[in-house]
């Protein structure tokens, strides 16, 4: 791994600095499908590719009201640097948000970050040396794996089924990697409404996964952006609600309010919290005071739980539109049927390659993310992640219909 040269996408021979890039930039290869996504953002294309929340479902007047109050009453605080750990009042409110998923904690252990994405980066920076191992579900969140690679970690995948990560596969991976002398630094998991597979780790398995992690001295990194966006029953309680010392929990307001605020958080075991704050300060001095105060004001004065309910309604309707369209147009394929979140995972016949098929899909005015993006090891060739979060139900139906044409076209070849 350490002899890896930066790939041509990190810089090429026309770039005079090509030879100077740090080796870790090898992990920052631009995705091969990026250029296509530029085309896919044209309005006539139905994009089932991105994970953009439906911010139009958040009444902007309410945000403006909160912002105005903050500027009138605490303008000089909002415009100033703040604590590297985050605004104390917001950290208290975050405790109430996490309590909805069974978590009891102290505001002292909450570190506000610039989205949960930045928390992922900070945790990786704290724990990973080149060649260390991260275990993650297969498939897993693409931009977490980009971070792991940029710190020169190896990502190894734990198999999943409809009930989430399979404990037996976790045990096998640990035994195999330990026998190879590898250092497994943490287990990265998205237990509820997983990105990209849409599945949820069952309660029994949550307990088993925690037990295995504990037995083997492996830290668990629980990433939970979607847990509150359930369509009927809530998911089982968070892993962090069961185990405190061995779990770092990540949350975010990106999906329950808006991603433009860039406010997320880490709830860390006491021992790790201090290092996280120092890393946060080194990276950004302090997370945005302006965004944090607006969110804090919003949570204080506006019925945020009702807003989360509205989001649930919007996404439930879109999910139903997608499952209905898949049932109608692609009845012979397999897909996951999530009870929350943003994503459906579609399986094509084994001989189809979803990445090769993408240019043709874009020509037919529908875009998706090929499954290989979500594996560190080339898996997912015949899978597709379909996002139902952003397009309207009508657009989703049109998109799946177009996808049917594309897939049928491939089968005719
Ligand atoms: N984790 C997962 C699983 C995600 O899907 C996302 C956003 N798509 C993030 C983390 C990052 O979210 P944010 O930085 O907006 O909080």
UniProtKB/TrEMBL annotation:
Keywords: Aminotransferase, DNA-binding, Pyridoxal phosphate, Transferase. Its cofactor is pyridoxal 5'-phosphate. GO terms for biological process: alpha-amino acid metabolic process. The lineage of its organism: Bacteria, Bacillati, Actinomycetota, Actinomycetes, Micrococcales. Homodimer. SUPFAM superfamilies: PLP-dependent transferases (SSF53383). Pfam families: Aminotran_1_2. It comes from Herbiconiux ginsengi. GO terms for molecular function: DNA binding; pyridoxal phosphate binding; transaminase activity. It comes from the Bacteria. Belongs to the class-I pyridoxal-phosphate-dependent aminotransferase family. Residues 62-403 form the Aminotransferase class I/classII large domain. This is DNA-binding transcriptional regulator, MocR family, contains an aminotransferase domain.
């Amino acid at each position: 791994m350490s002899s890896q040269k930066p790939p041509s996408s990190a810089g090429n021979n026309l770039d005079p600095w090509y030879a100077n890039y740090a080796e870790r930039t090898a992990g920052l290869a631009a995705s091969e499908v990026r250029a296509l996504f530029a085309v896919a953002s044209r309005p006539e294309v139905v994009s089932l590719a991105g994970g953009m929340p439906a911010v139009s479902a958040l009444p902007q007047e309410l945000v403006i009201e909160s912002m105005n109050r903050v500027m009138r009453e605490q303008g000089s605080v909002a415009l100033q640097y703040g604590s590297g750990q985050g605004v104390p009042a917001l950290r208290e409110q975050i405790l109430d948000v996490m309590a909805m998923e069974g978590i009891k904690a102290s505001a002292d252990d909450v570190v506000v970050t610039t989205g949960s994405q930045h928390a992922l980066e900070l945790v990786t920076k704290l724990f990973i040396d080149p060649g260390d191992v991260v275990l993650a579900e297969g498939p897993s969140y693409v931009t977490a794996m980009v971070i792991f690679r940029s710190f020169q970690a190896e990502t190894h995948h734990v198999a999943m089924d409809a009930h989430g990560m399979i404990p037996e596969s976790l045990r096998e991976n640990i035994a195999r990697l330990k026998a190879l002398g590898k250092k497994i630094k943490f287990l990265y998991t998205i237990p509820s409404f997983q990105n990209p597979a849409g599945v949820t780790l069952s309660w029994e398995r949550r307990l088993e996964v925690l037990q295995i992690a504990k037995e083997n001295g492996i830290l668990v990194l629980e990433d939970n952006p979607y847990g509150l966006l359930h369509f009927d029953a809530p998911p089982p309680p968070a892993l962090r609600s069961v185990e405190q010392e061995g779990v770092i929990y990540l949350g975010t307001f990106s999906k329950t309010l808006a991603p433009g605020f860039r406010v997320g958080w880490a709830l860390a075991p006491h021992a790790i919290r201090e290092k996280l704050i120092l890393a946060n300060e080194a990276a950004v001095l302090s997370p945005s005071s302006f965004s944090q105060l607006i969110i804090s004001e919003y949570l204080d004065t506006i019925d945020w739980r009702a807003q989360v309910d509205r989001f649930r309604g919007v996404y439930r309707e879109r999910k139903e539109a997608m499952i209905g369209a898949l049932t109608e147009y692609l009845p012979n394929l397999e897909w996951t049927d999530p009870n929350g979140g943003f994503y459906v995972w579609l399986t094509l016949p084994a001989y189809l390659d979803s990445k090769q098929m993408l240019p043709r899909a874009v020509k037919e005015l529908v875009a998706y993310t090929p499954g290989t993006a979500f594996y560190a090891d080339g898996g997912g060739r015949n899978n597709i992640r379909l996002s139902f979060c952003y397009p309207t139900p009508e657009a989703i139906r049109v998109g799946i219909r177009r996808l049917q044409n594309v897939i049928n076209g491939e089968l005719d070849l």
